[in-house]
Amino acid sequence: MQRETTSVVERKKDTREKIILGGLVQKAGLLNANRAFLMGALLMIAKISPGTEQYESLKELGQKVLSGPKPSLSSSESPNHETPVSGF
Fold it and tell me: Which of 13, 22, 30, 39 has its CB surrounded by the most CB atoms within 10 Å?
């Protein structure tokens, strides 16, 4: 019985984490983005070391978006626009 309870708790935690990550994708305006594109972008940012200027810049941008209303982006700044991100 204890094992089932632990398994349920772990599943609920995993589900919550996935929902939170999905919310980040939605907030970034990337729900309709190509999955391979998203994976490539995530793999690229995974290589950025914490504490670097690039990491801190991205973190600051993310904190601003998460703590305030959704920023209005022009069409040239749209997350779905295929403009290369500087530093990559």
Answer: 30
Residue 38 lies in a domain: yes
pLDDT for the residue numbered 27: 94
Q: Which domain holds residue 2?
A: 1-49
End-to-end CA distance of the chain: 50
Distances (CA, A) of 74 to 37, 68, 81, 84: 21, 18, 10, 16
Residue 46: both structure tokens together: 């995974």
Residue 71: per-residue pLDDT: 53
State how far the Cα of 28 lies from the Cα of 64, in Å rounded to an integer.
Answer: 12
Residue 10 within any structural domain of the chain: yes
